[in-house]
Amino acid sequence: MSGRIVVTGATGNVGTSVVRVLAEDPAVTSVTGVARRLPGWRPEGTDWKAVDLAREKSGPALVEVFRGADAVVHLAWAFQPTHDPVVTWRTNVLGSLRVFEAVAAAGVPALVHASSVGAYSPGPKDREVDESWPTHGWPDAAYTREKAYLERALDAFERQHPQVRVVRMRPAFLFKRQAAGEQRRIFGGTYLPGAIARPDLLPVMPDIPGLRVQALHTDDAAEAYRIAALSPDARGAFNLAAGPPLDAQVLGRMFGARPVRVPAGAVRAAVSAAWRMRLLPASPHLFDAVLRVPMMDTRRARDVLGWRPSRDAESVIEEFLEGLREGGGLDTAPLHGGSVG
């Protein structure tokens, strides 16, 4: 038996999937979910603890929650407010450092950390890079800057605490039906109608230079987290993504829309104007970062973890769009459903 696993950020897009797959694993005796706000959703065999990682005095509470755990899966992350990066820094960076320190203080033998493709330095779109690609992020975007900073923090943590097995997951963009409402609010805004996610409303597909990314179903990512948490030999970084890469040609075929070349500068100007007027939560800095993230090679996850995605990227996007139209959600504060318009 692998005993008890603690999951921070357990009520979000990734956390709910990780909690579910761990709770269903007979090798896991119990799962403790940590979140700022306790959910109504409670899988069998799961208990919950309310801890706000942004609070300076949350460290002792984390130590108590982590004590006796066989692994901590750290997923907690705040995407907003994008206009005040100090607020996200408190949760994402300072909160993560408190998690790392509590793992060591509580004597937890394994830490599985949610890094991201966003941690990578700008890279190629025409070939895939492995986990050795530099992780300096894109410095102008808070999300990528914070992910890259934590990679350096984990470098130091591993040197100081060699007894802790550290895993860094670097997934592509993650989607599932139940997270569609949350992602609409985070990136498109509270008032963006979910009903616009219909192929017949999009006769052309903007073809923006550099806009070629990878995607993955959140449940497939959760399976990789489960394997890493339970496998004593799993350590280091793992890229997670499904094919095919998504660009204007692939999305145009899915939507029945004709790709039309659009200058990246024009799109950025529009995104910047909407963001400055607070009509769009996603910042132009994040748009810049997305244009620069590399394509990832996932062979290490396949070879070491025995992991393979069960769904391709096209089916993932189709499910996500269905969730947008139908108001997909779950009974947790981040994933509450409902559509607009």
Task: Spell out the blueprint of helices and strands.
Elements: E1 4-8, H1 13-23, E2 30-35, E3 46-50, H2 59-66, E4 71-74, H3 85-106, E5 110-114, E6 128-129, H4 142-160, E7 165-171, E8 173-175, H5 180-188, E9 204-207, E10 213-217, H6 218-230, E11 236-240, E12 242-246, H7 248-255, E13 258-261, H8 264-276, H9 284-290, E14 295-296, H10 299-305, H11 313-326
Parallel strand pairs: 1-2, 1-4, 2-3, 4-5, 5-7, 6-14, 7-11, 8-10, 9-13
Antiparallel strand pairs: 10-12
Helix pairs in contact: 1-6, 2-3, 3-4, 8-9
The main sheet orders its strands as 3-2-1-4-5-7-11
> DSSP helix count?
11
The proportion of strand residues reads: 15-25%
Shape: globular
Care to count the β-strands? Answer: 14
Low-confidence stretches: none
Structural class: alpha/beta
Based on CA atoms alone, the radius of gyration comes out at: 19 Å
Distance between the termini: 49 Å
Overall pLDDT confidence = 92
SSE topology string: EHEEHEHEEHEEHEEHEEHEHHEHH
Helix content: 25-40%
For the sheet with most strands, the description reads: 7 strands, parallel
